[in-house]
């Protein structure tokens, strides 16, 4: 697989390419523990072609329910769903936040394709009632997909995972709300300093923590969210908690000495995550995320 097989939707001027020539080109590993270590170390993070291959393999290995929509289904339905409407103006389903559609390093065709894929996902997954992470996941995978149909199939497999021991994406408000409460509990236990700050400056700390997934899937820059996704596909949902806790801790370190008002703390956190490259590298973020032993497999 080379760039021509997966870069159709990419604005290459925006994609980081440093170190591509010296980085590994293949991944010969099937051992889960070794995969965990390699993903945490960013083994395939600097080679876009290798990352595309790894994503394809990891997603193909996800155990799914018997009837899971694939690329051929997408090709059958996309024309009926989109019709003659402009892809860039397609309305999104209510279960995603229309304001949280990241463009990352997509070109104009890719930006429109995100909406097309999401609309077809909505058609094939009628049980989804709340899935704020979906736009980010679709946008991210489009960078490494040969076409929209392949991206659709990849996202479908993630949504259709039926391994009872492997949680991936929240698809109902109840599941999302539960994850927010869990994150609040984890913050109070493992990030006591940042948590006390949030309690002190927030009228409702759970309202602040309700954005925890959006920090990851929406606010993080592309070269950070891809690192999250690298590990997420190997280790599952706990990775998201670990990274979000690390972001909360870094926010306190960077912004803790500055005055914050209760009505601005959510915005301040969002701006910090969006501009995280000014203060924290992806490597440092991941090192911090490994400091929570109870959340490590």
TrEMBL record:
Descriptive protein name: Rab-GAP TBC domain-containing protein
Superkingdom in the source lineage: Eukaryota
Pfam families noted in UniProt: RabGAP-TBC (PF00566)
Matches recorded under InterPro entries: GATA_zinc_finger, Rab-GAP-TBC_dom, Rab-GAP_TBC_sf
Every Rab-GAP TBC domain range: 39-259
